[in-house]
Write a structure and sequence with these properties.
single chain; alpha/beta; Rossmann fold; Alpha-Beta Plaits; 4 domains; six-stranded parallel beta sheet; 26% strand; globular
Length: 457
């Protein structure tokens, strides 16, 4: 596929790295020549220095015959204009834009054929807010992903000392829960993937990803770690779109405090929220946190625009007695630094954005893609098409499939029915398959599994 990426920031660079390894034809456009040179030294991509919304630059980038334009510059306006120009002048088939400003997002009609012609609008703030809210449903989870419109969830968590299954083989999971079906899709031990088999012993500190019907998630979690009580007292650091969005959802069920340093923003938030106590102040102030009884807080959520403020305020909150801390971190290097330390969960806007983009780039009938463990692994939902003659999957049992290394089928969704995958489970046409891939270099083989053989049509 021939793809033009506008913007060589963290998202654009990570996306280029992901796609160039999958043999796509990538051209990257940015105003920063030094950044482009650094990427070109590492990746097999073409680069152009210029303004991504200029027709001349788009033509030089190959928009005349490009399959897709992905606009992820730091400017919403440039992203939107570039998609419109790609449509008007070059008839680019698929146009994706990252748009952050709520003023644009609250008017979806801006992005139809009468406005800016953008096929897919991606809002990192909305994606992050949804991701955090899913995490809050399951205290102790490191990652919670939705599939099949929420009927199936994939949850990542750490196995702790004292969990019923720690020290036991995976096969005993069914013995512990005879009436509940679940599948461990992957295990990471000391950062490396381990193939989950019935004889695999679960060790403390293993990072485990399991798949189950949504209504069974808590029961499975209770087997892997001591089930934590729901969050009742929550403090949010940062009154931007993410902080305010979380507060709107939580204030009906939790006692909330929100800290924001901008006086005008404090006033606006206080008028928008009904039950949240909105405070003006510095989120890294020990005096303020102590005055607001931080030691009684179940969860401290740091979602300011500053990674440093988020990390420092969360570390301070934990030291002063907060039960849990969740932080928003933009820099990938920082995510690696805080994971496994005093901060309990780190959420990355880049990871959420990359996942949303990959959903629209992957070949075949891909419904959803989630990038995991900083891009090292992926969870995918795809639809089986064709019949026993035209499909590599339809009519076959999971145990008969020739899956690439590191690939595990977790669940099948058939209409309203959720089937946890086992070797004898037989796949049917139109099934939604949820699978986990720990070695992303095999993504091409996974995509080919879902392609219909046209020779037999």
């Amino acid at each position: 596929m021939k793809i033009i990426i506008l913007g060589a920031g963290t998202v654009g660079g990570t996306l280029a790295e992901t796609l160039s390894g999958e043999k796509h034809d990538i051209t990257m456009v940015d105003m920063n020549g030094a950044r482009l040179a650094e990427l070109q030294d590492r990746l097999d991509i073409r680069t152009i220095v210029g303004q991504g919304s200029y027709p001349r630059v788009l033509r030089e980038a190959g928009a005349d015959d490009a399959d897709m334009l992905i606009a992820v510059t730091n400017s919403d306006e440039i992203n939107m204009a570039a998609c419109q120009i790609a449509y008007t002048m070059f008839h680019t088939p698929t146009k994706i834009a990252r748009v952050r400003a709520t003023e644009y997002l609250r008017h979806p009609d801006l992005f139809d054929r009468e406005g800016f012609v953008v096929d897919v609008v991606i809002s990192p703030e909305q994606l992050v807010t949804e991701s955090i809210l899913r995490l809050l449903e399951y205290p102790g989870a490191l990652q919670v992903l939705d599939f099949a419109e929420g009927r199936v969830r994939l949850v990542g968590l750490k196995a702790y000392y004292g969990g019923p299954l720690v020290g036991n083989a995976l096969a005993t999971l069914r013995q512990h829960m005879p009436k509940i079906d679940a599948r461990v899709a992957a295990i990471f031990r000391n950062g490396k993937p381990i193939k989950p088999e019935g004889t695999t012993l679960i060790e403390a500190d293993d990072e485990i990803f399991f798949v189950a019907a949504s209504e069974n998630i808590r029961a499975v979690m209770s087997e892997l770690q001591k089930l934590e009580s729901p969050y009742q007292r929550v403090m949010i650091a940062g009154g931007g779109h993410i902080g305010t969005g979380i507060a709107k959802k939580l204030e009906k069920t939790c006692k909330l405090k929100l800290i924001e340093r901008n006086a005008d923003r404090v006033k606006a938030i206080a008028e928008e929220l009904g039950k949240t106590l909105v405070l003006k102040g510095d989120v890294t102030s020990q005096e303020l946190l102590e005055e607001e009884d931080i030691e009684q807080i179940d969860l401290f959520i740091a979602v300011t625009n500053s990674d440093e403020a988020n990390i420092m305020s969360a570390l301070l909150a934990k030291r002063l007695g907060a039960r849990k801390a969740l932080v928003l971190i933009n820099r990938t290097a920082y995510v690696d630094l805080v994971n496994g330390g005093d901060i309990d969960v780190a959420v990355s806007p880049q990871s959420a954005t990359i996942s949303a983009l990959l959903t629209h780039i992957r070949h075949g009938d891909i419904v959803a893609v989630h990038s995991l463990r900083r891009g090292a692994a992926e969870a995918i939902e795809a639809i089986v098409r064709g019949d026993e003659k035209t499909s590599k999957l339809a009519g076959r049992a999971i145990g008969e499939l020739e899956l690439p290394p590191g690939c595990t089928v977790g669940a099948i969704v058939r209409g309203e029915e959720v089937l946890i995958a086992h070797d004898k489970t037989r796949i049917q046409s139109e099934d939604h398959i949820i699978l986990f891939l720990t070695e992303r270099r095999y993504i091409g083989e996974v995509e080919r599994l879902f392609q219909v053989d046209v020779r037999y049509l």
